Amino acid sequence: MKIATFNVNGIKARLSNLLAWLEREKPDVACLQELKCVDEAFPATAIAEAGYESLWKGQKSWNGVAILARAAKPELINDQLPGDPSDDQSRYLEAAVGGVVVCCLYLPNGNPHPGPKFDYKLAWFERLIQHAAALCGSKQPVVIAGDFNVVPTNSDIYNPRSWLKASGGS
Question: What are residue 113's DSSP bridge partners?
Fold first, then answer.
């Protein structure tokens, strides 16, 4: 099974890029992040015409995740990361696809640091670690894919100056 992840950074603006990528790469499962659209605006028809069934959880203007599957229907398991029922950000989707539990995530970036957004990122990460441990302890194959928003070195980001500025660095 070929599983890929793609931060689309606005699915409406980059739908043609996504469809071309799906046609070229032909992943069996694609995890999408940063949809930046409400559920009603998700282009399910165009994606279905490309041969993919889909699950999605959108959010106006930012966030949003989706799981696309070719030749299989993704069956919803969780539409939010367990551990905080008050968390209303669309950053996690979990589905069964062809006998595999597929988790698609868009981890918060935590900027600026220090501050409440960074605290939220750390709390979200801790919830992810706890849930991932439970998933990996199951007898099912599990894939946890997506945008982890972790930048340990300057070579891990396209523009280190923007990262340093946003993180409070110099």
Answer: none
In single-letter form, the type of residue at position 75 comes to E
Instruction: Reply yes or no on whether 79 is catalytic.
Output: no
What's the sign of the alpha-carbon dihedral 145, 66, 3, 20?
Answer: negative
The one catalytic residue in 28, 39, 79, 106 is 106
Helix (H, G, I), strand (E, B) or coil at 72: coil
What is the Cα–Cα distance from 15 to 12, expressed in whole angstroms?
5
Please tell me the distance from the alpha carbon of residue 86 to that of residue 169, in angstroms, as a whole number: 31
147 catalytic per annotation: yes
Residue matched to tokens 């030749």: 71
- Among the options 52, 87, 120, 147, which is catalytic? 147
Q: Which CATH number fits domain 3-166: 3.60.10.10, 3.60.21.10, 3.40.1790.10, 3.40.47.10?
A: 3.60.10.10
In percent, the amount of the chain with pLDDT more than 70 equals: 94
User: Which residues, in sequence order, are CB contacts of 44 under 8 Å at separation 6+?
Assistant: 54, 56
Residues 54-96 pLDDT 10s: 999 999 999 999 999 998 999 999 999 999 999 999 999 999 9
